[in-house]
Amino acid sequence: MTCPTRVLQFLIVAALLAALYSCAPTPVTPADTPEQSEAQADDARAAGDAARAAELYDAAAEGYEEAADRNRVSIAAARSWLEAEERDAATTALARVDPEHLGESDRDRFTLARAQLALQRERPDLAASLLDNLAEPPAGEEADYHRLRAAAAAVMDDHLKVAEQRVALEQHLETPSQREENRNLIWQALGRTPAPQLQEIDPDDDTYGGWVRLAQIARSHRLDPERLEEAVSDWEAAFPDHPARDHQATELITRFHERIRRPERVALLLPLSGDFREAGRAVRDGILSAYFSDNNQRPEITVHDTGGDPERALEALAEAREADSDAVIGPLTRGAVRAIADADESPPTLALNTLDDNGTAEHLYQFALTPETDARQAALHAQRRGWSSVVILAPRTDWGERVQRAFQEAFEETDGTVLQSEAYDAGDADFSGPIREVLNLRVSSLRHQELTRTLGQSLEYQPRRRQDVDAIFLAASPEAGRLLRPQLEYHHAQDVPVLSTAHIYGGAPRPEEDRDLDGLHFVDGPWLVGRSLGIPEALERERLAELLGDVLRREARLVALGIDAYRIFPYLEVLSEHPEERLDGLTGKLHLNSERVVERELVAARFVRGRPVFEQPATEGGDDGPTDDAE
Question: Which of 40, 41, 282, 371 has its CA 20 to 30 A from that of 407?
Answer without folding.
Answer: 282
